Amino acid sequence: MKKYLDQTLTPQQRAEALVSEMTTEEMASQLRYDAPAIERLGIPAYNWWNEALHGLARSGIATMFPQAIALAAMFDPDLVQQAAEITADETRAKYNAYLAHGDHDIYKGLTLWAPNINIFRDPRWGRGHETYGEDPFLTAENGKAYVKGLQGQGPVLKTAACAKHFAVHSGPESLRHEFNAEATPKDIEETYLPAFEALIKEAHVEGVMGAYNCVNGEPSCASDFLMGKLREWNFDGYFVSDCWAIQDFHQNHKITSTPIESAAMALKAGCDVNCGCTYAYLLTALEEGKITEEDIRAACTHLMRTRIKLGMFDQQTEYDNIPYATVASPEHKSVSLQCAERSMVLLKNNGILPLDETKLKTIAVIGPNADSRIALEGNYCGTADRYTTFLTGIQDRFAGRVIYAEGCHLYKDRSSGLALAGDRYAEALTAAENADLVILCVGLDATIEGEEGDTGNEFSSGDKNDLRLPESQRILVDRILQTAKPTVIVCAAGSSINIEADPDALIHAWYPGSEGGKALAEILFGDVSPSGKLPVTFYETAEKLPDFTDYSMQNRTYRYAKDNILYPFGYGLTYSKTECTDLQYQNKTARITVTNTGKVPCEEVVQLYIKDASQWSPLNPSLCGFRRIALNAGEQKTVEIPIPEKAFTSVNANGERKIFSDTFTLYAGTHQPDPLSETLTGTKCLTLEITP
Amino acid sequence: MKKYLDQTLTPQQRAEALVSEMTTEEMASQLRYDAPAIERLGIPAYNWWNEALHGLARSGIATMFPQAIALAAMFDPDLVQQAAEITADETRAKYNAYLAHGDHDIYKGLTLWAPNINIFRDPRWGRGHETYGEDPFLTAENGKAYVKGLQGQGPVLKTAACAKHFAVHSGPESLRHEFNAEATPKDIEETYLPAFEALIKEAHVEGVMGAYNCVNGEPSCASDFLMGKLREWNFDGYFVSDCWAIQDFHQNHKITSTPIESAAMALKAGCDVNCGCTYAYLLTALEEGKITEEDIRAACTHLMRTRIKLGMFDQQTEYDNIPYATVASPEHKSVSLQCAERSMVLLKNNGILPLDETKLKTIAVIGPNADSRIALEGNYCGTADRYTTFLTGIQDRFAGRVIYAEGCHLYKDRSSGLALAGDRYAEALTAAENADLVILCVGLDATIEGEEGDTGNEFSSGDKNDLRLPESQRILVDRILQTAKPTVIVCAAGSSINIEADPDALIHAWYPGSEGGKALAEILFGDVSPSGKLPVTFYETAEKLPDFTDYSMQNRTYRYAKDNILYPFGYGLTYSKTECTDLQYQNKTARITVTNTGKVPCEEVVQLYIKDASQWSPLNPSLCGFRRIALNAGEQKTVEIPIPEKAFTSVNANGERKIFSDTFTLYAGTHQPDPLSETLTGTKCLTLEITP
Predict the structure, then answer these.
(1) Which positions 303-332 of B are in contact with A (Cβ < 8 Å)?
(2) Alpha helices in A152-274, H assignment, sequence order
(3) d(Cα B158, Cα B163) in Å, to the nearest integer?
(4) What is the pLDDT of residues B481-513, one digit of tens each?
(5) For A324, which of B395, B419, B430 is closest by C-beta distance?
(6) Which residues of A are catalytic?
(7) Whether this model's pTM surpasses 0.95
(8) Is the per-residue pLDDT at A456 higher than 60?
(9) Of the residues B242, B248, B371, B463, which is catalytic?
(10) Which of A179, B70, B216, B399 could form a disulfide with B66, with the two C-beta atoms 3.0–4.6 Å apart?
(11) ipTM for the complex?
């Protein structure tokens, strides 16, 4: 038996044995993302580029979960992990099918380039909806859950997750190929790195992807500082560049002069696989003495080690018989539905919700996102085998008449080039006038909130210019509200939006996945109480934010913001009313009593925040624990939430993380502890001084 | 009271009175398609450009009927008329709403630029699916029904229909702005004009639109020959140019040298309203003496006459209270469903259909048109408030598991630019392998079969290069059939397609409208027996057709084709078997006995063809009557079909239509009388020699 096939050896040993049989040229060939076969060694072709941000992506049909930001809004890592487990099962089922047909193409492998655990630092970032929000702790909890779900319980990895984009990466998209993010040591340690550290140390994520931008002058994919962190954390997976990021070294960052230098710099730093084409110059770099054969060998060994961990060189794995019927199965789609139910955030409700069906004959569903499949998808998604749009969900659920009007284009001022501006308002107003109630479905989609190069919009390469609705929709909202019909606004967007209007109720639905319309209808009609919580601060206006290119955390995110808050972090209403009482602390664990004082069952997220007494603590208390619970009307539960060690640390100006204080204030409630959210909810957070 | 408001006067008198109050400039302004208001006379702005080819189009939500070619496949003018009545009701309901909101924009008026009654002369024509097919009689019957439905029973017109494109117009799209169609007097009288004549004389269509191309050297919108025909037929409506067609006179046809000359030429010839902008030069033409004020006055009077007929200057009309709730009402959509049920054509069935649900656990629905909304729409359509795609329809109807795979892009060789060619075949094959049966949904859509300027495809400006499926789909069909799974192919396309494959069953679904998927599922599972009939010949190959630019009818359409027939005109199977016996003739009426000799109820279309003994009769018998009937299993009915006078005429080389013969042969059956169709159906047409 070939040594690399010997399952009694470690993956590292097997990888070394396999690579030892390769020529230099063969080793170098494997560092391309589209690695060719080495037929004489029985190594099949393999494409490292595969996507699975919220379900298997770009690989045909798969269960489509809500976008990552929506998953974060669940405050429910267990369910995130379940979504990832399903994603991994479907990835394996399709991998088996592709292999059976000899198809080794892109999007058909097991190295999934998810999750995106960048901090959603600025609400204008177009890719923010790919993340788990603005908080390092929430991001880490969800990221770990997603990685665990994707990678499985071993010993063979079900799939290999990848933490991206390492690190300090959050726009602007338009500048990403030449941008240098300048961040303080404190912000890096306090905000930008914790989730990466957690995924590597605690979830053993198999892959890390570097970012496009530079960080403090070093390109992310070849940064001594960042690569040093990976070594410090004992990362033992593979490192991949973002796609065509190494090309940016010479073309845009101007840090090198030639592709040969760029390839050498990345490889030397520790970038194992090149998504792009710059590693085509590796052999030239070797000839020129810029790299050594050992550099190539080390990278190739990392890559083979990952493939070995995935069982690709085992005769069989426990995953080979996952049946194709698992793909987009009814059971899987019901989990997607559950995610959508738990992710939508009720931001306002004057009592109109849940709707009283007995009093409604006709509902007008209006707006450019009402019947939009794209608004369900977000980006980096698969294809669903059925899309329940908001409109369809309401039609299916409501026994009366539903009248639909698109209202306006998502962002253009007219729906037809031959028409006058505002060509669809009259229809929308008529629909409203003929209805007892309006459900107004506005927001964005990934064509105007997304990634550089992906979008055809007129904004900044996928970034938002501001936090408002596009003008076409602002006019629509104004005009519909002027009809004085009872109106519920449903906003589908992956980020903070200020709708600048005062409807009877407001639901932020994110990009809720293929079952989004069903979840919305269930919430509207009270089959399900909303329970999503904001994983990002909703600001009043972009004008009061720091410059988009400013990577200082000052006055950004709930931990550092002084003002400009529209809806606070962690906020979200239910159809009931819950009260936290009796906060206690013992043995690194908080104990909170929660009572449903309302009239209907609900799910609630109990949140724990902490702040130390030192000068190094962030301005506002930081999330350090949370727990989703279900409560019947009148029910009381006592919730125990362990507080991680790290919650007692702070970071000084040098970026050193330590315990700087003996005393801490704990806050328990159902949202960030701040005056506005307490006014909004009518409930104060509990506070407790503790000395651990 | 102003004289033009006096409803006791004729529309002509009222129009003359109204126009007499206008200045020359005001009259000229009304000849634009986007006619401005004349406020001093209380004349509101009016946009003449409105669309309603198969339901109100481009005006937001409306009931979407199957595309025109599909409506023709019903062989059921009564139902066509009902669809048009619904369309007119919805147009009025929305017109009322637009007016209430002061919206006089494009697509919001009452002058509907439908139907398209051009003869579908060549199967490569991209716009062929807008027509009622290749037969003048079938086109006229459907066109008259559509016009009657749109215009209503009067006295006030519910809406104004428009017969287009007058005349001899059927591609190529890529040449339409400079093309000169050369047609013989015989072909013009025998094929190209009869439907126009019928709509004007028998259905009193209110509008006629000229075509882009020249006909025998004269531009259609200013042709002495064609305008002479309108006068001969006592046309008393309004004439509109196709959009920017007058500009073609100087820019492309080079028949005039300047826009001034073009405007003058069109107006002089009798073109009342200019869709385009060339009539901006009318006042200059007047100054230069190229036209007279009387020319302008005549056109303006025609236009005001139409607006008066529509009740636009009446205090109220019977249509003012059509409620908005009528738009896309459940009742209206059920008629759309009925149209889809009757329009789909079963071309092949080895007995697999209807499907036996008890034997099926898993169905694979595969193909680029399976979950496509565009494939339901065709072109010139509205927006449906719900789209039941083929996939969704099957999911809703089938209790077992449905697996979906897109299979391939509609026409590109890969679904992702980064992937290798054929990137979705492995998934499709896997889906097939995991199913008991495959429903393979292939075909075209309006992005590759449509109008010049509308499409982004790589083919000839919307025209087809051949009659095959795009290569991506040919490979898909081959590979799926190689799995040897039972396979039903569903082809959505607006024209003749040769799928070049031998599945267990083949359904040609056209572009079946918003309810298309429901209709398909009903047919697949036997809730409804298919009953659509081909309104066009399905040819074997485009290579055996005359040149696309050749407007001679020789070897084109079922009346003149000698060979190259894949499926004949009028052909379409049911789930039962019907037999025509006992053809009799008396008093211009044929009497046929029809028996359902099969085991299930069905609808059938009894068809009557005629041929005279003279040298002037078309090569093959011509359709002269038909009747759709419903028959229970074993049921026998006697059908009476009147034969119109015109059926006994033929056209000589000079274009003179006369009765040239004493004896005629009548053919009765369920398809065109030809040997192939008799082999396909196993039933011979009945023949009867008659001497009327």
Answers:
(1) 323-325, 327-328
(2) 185-187, 194-201, 224-232, 245-251, 259-269
(3) 16
(4) 999 999 999 999 999 999 999 999 999 999 999
(5) B430
(6) 242
(7) yes
(8) no
(9) B242
(10) B70
(11) 0.97
